[in-house]
Amino acid sequence: MKYSKLLYILYGDSLSDILNILNQSVYVTDYITEDKNSIVVHTGFTFLTHKQKKIDLLYDFKNETIIRQVRNDGFAIPQINGMFATKGDDNYFNYFCDIVLTEIVEEKDEESTFYHLKNPYTYLNINKINEITVIDKEKNNEITYTSFKISSNGILIKEIPLQKELEDIIFFDGDLFKKYISDDEYYQEEDDDDDYDDDDYDDDYHDYDRDTFNALTDGQLGDYDDFGGDIDDVMTWLGRD
């Protein structure tokens, strides 16, 4: 999966699509590559599990692999979409370069724009990053970005936030990611299923005794509501009992 497509899903509104991405991801200690040219970036996307663990999602451009790792807020790379990351001896991507990816051509990852991040360490341990300042060394100037840009044929077609934390809490059973449903939500759903109005029953109820009474008496015993007996009395009146 190309990086642009991945960002469309992660920063989109479909939780089912996001869960599909999470279930495609590889845990960081299980991700082994000997490719020294591999480029791994932070997607800027994080989510919280039902065990209150915050998870980072990373992306390897060379292998088009989605990598997940527990975020260590005391020692973690800046949560910036496109931030370059490197793996340490502990097999976690807890080190970062001062290089950040700021723009990509849709479906063409090789045509990307990279800059050096100005004062990169100032972004450490910051939960909310609304903008970044990069240095264009070729033009010797600074550029401020408030979003990650996706273009096509030289035209800007989408701006993606620099970061996102998923609002939904995610349940993980060791094999599968899915939306976490708390006990309160679970029992509320059961209560909703059991909560019927009287009108619901009225809509389903049909008075067959009335139909039988009307068919047998043809109005000779008056209105059903005024009749004091039951169907057995009607049968006696008809001489059939």
List keywords for this structure.
241 residues; 32% strand; 2 domains; 12-stranded mixed β-sheet; alpha+beta; two-stranded antiparallel sheet
In brief, what are we looking at here?
The chain has 241 residues and is α+β, with helices and mostly antiparallel strands.
Folded structure, characterized:
This protein is of the alpha+beta class and 241 residues long. The chain is built from six helices and 14 strands. The protein has helices at 3-10, 15-24, 183-194, 198-204, 208-217, 231-237; strands spanning 26-27, 40-48, 54-60, 65-70, 83-86, 95-105, 108-117, 132-136, 141-145, 148-152, 155-160, 164-165, 170-172, 177-179. It starts with a helix and ends with a helix. The model has no long low-confidence stretch (mean pLDDT 83).
| Structural class label | alpha+beta
Number of strands: 14
What is the H/E order? Answer: HHEEEEEEEEEEEEEEHHHH
Low-confidence regions:
none
Q: Strand content of the residues, in percent?
A: 25-35%
- Roughly how many Å apart are the termini? 81 Å
SSE blueprint and pairings:
Layout (H helix, E strand, L loop, with lengths): L2 H8 L4 H10 L1 E2 L12 E9 L5 E7 L4 E6 L12 E4 L8 E11 L2 E10 L14 E5 L4 E5 L2 E5 L2 E6 L3 E2 L4 E3 L4 E3 L3 H12 L3 H7 L3 H10 L13 H7 L4
Parallel strand pairs: 1-4, 2-12, 6-10
Antiparallel strand pairs: 2-3, 2-5, 3-4, 5-6, 6-7, 7-8, 8-9, 10-11, 13-14
